[in-house]
Amino acid sequence: MSGAEKTGKTYLTKLFLKQQYKQYIPTLGYDIVNVTKNIDLIYREQQIQLSLWDMQGSEQYDSIIQAYYANAQAVILVFNCNDRKSFDKCNTYMNHIKTFCIDYVQVSLVGNSFSDEINREVSYDEAVDFASLHDTIYVEITSQNSSYATIDNIISKLINMIIK
């Protein structure tokens, strides 16, 4: 998981692990969780070992990001639909991904909405255009209504894209 601060990366990680997320506490540096997961692949169900990296969104960690991206096969890039700056920073994160990740890295852009449409600063169409420009998939979620199935579906799609 990558993206700016306060975009919901830790929340999505906890959701995938079926752990309770009590309150916002900034991630310091990074948090790595290894999990074995049964994933429905195109042809069959298979057990996959995943290493989920929840990376701090603060710019003070930009200089060490390349080490975290080195062998990543997939990246979930998260931004807050109600925070224009977090979306604008996606360009920087995409540059990091293209520079430091392996050539065939798969990326999913996730727009996380924390409130109603009135406070929205990034339109759905704008996010879709950005994803298309960078040859990624776009998924929009709402923190309050997201379920395990939502993040599981995103991760399953990425794994299927890697295996192709």
TrEMBL record:
The molecular function terms in GO held by this entry are: GTP binding; GTPase activity
Q: Note whether GTP-binding occurs among the keywords.
A: yes
**Keywords on record:** GTP-binding, Nucleotide-binding
| CDD domains linked | Rab
Instruction: Work out whether the entry's keyword set contains GTP-binding.
Output: yes
Q: Which InterPro entries match?
A: P-loop_NTPase (IPR027417), Rab (IPR050227), Small_GTPase (IPR001806)
Q: Which SUPFAM superfamilies match?
A: P-loop containing nucleoside triphosphate hydrolases (SSF52540)
Question: Which PANTHER family does the record match to this protein?
Answer: RAS-RELATED PROTEIN RAB
Q: What is this protein called?
A: Rab11
Species of origin reads Hexamita inflata
